[in-house]
């Protein structure tokens, strides 16, 4: 019964019929171990076999979906995922030499459907795997987010499941958490305090990242066999990876439900796109075309350099 009450609260909490945005945040079945690269790979791999009620757990490395309710319109459910199978990822690890750079590579993506999201929401809520963060919106804010949802679909961004560095507002695609966080960014609600609470920063040694013509020093199988090394020190060659972490978001919510009334914040007047639509769509197409492949060393060191040269728009 308590689980059912929590689920009903998530579906119909106070302010249920006001304009609002919900972030539905799913924790991993077991916490990921971020102490070192090897511990991270092994904890992620172990989670792939997790089950709930005899079925494979749908979000083994944690996840975020969104639900947008504007007035009495039908709610919009979205959540980015990759269409790539675990077997295809395994092929990349074993045959292509992909290692930790898998965190940077864009894949073909799609959004979860409303039915998929709702099918898992109740059982996972009852077991404490889901927490909800609700933003109470004014009508201008909700309209802006509704336009953003439509734009995300029409520009093709919905087809790119981005690596952890990918920024959807720059046409690069997004993973699930960057996608969800972008809704707050579109409303200028991503404060420094919130970023500190929700983002994780890693120093990844360059020697652990495969690039074209050069494989990482430790392979995926090497990690599974126990090989490891620390994250990079500031003095050695590395990339700084800062990303939105669903697990940190989950713990920040605290309980099953947290609410923030942002109706007093003015909806931004700036355009949703940073450039013209043509340039933005060209940028999306560039990143879609270059998904699924090993990155060049230049791309690993500076994810936007080639896009900058192509479109003369440097973030």
UniProtKB/TrEMBL annotation:
Identify the domain of life.
Bacteria
What is the protein's given name? Uncharacterized protein
Q: Which organism is it from?
A: Bdellovibrio bacteriovorus
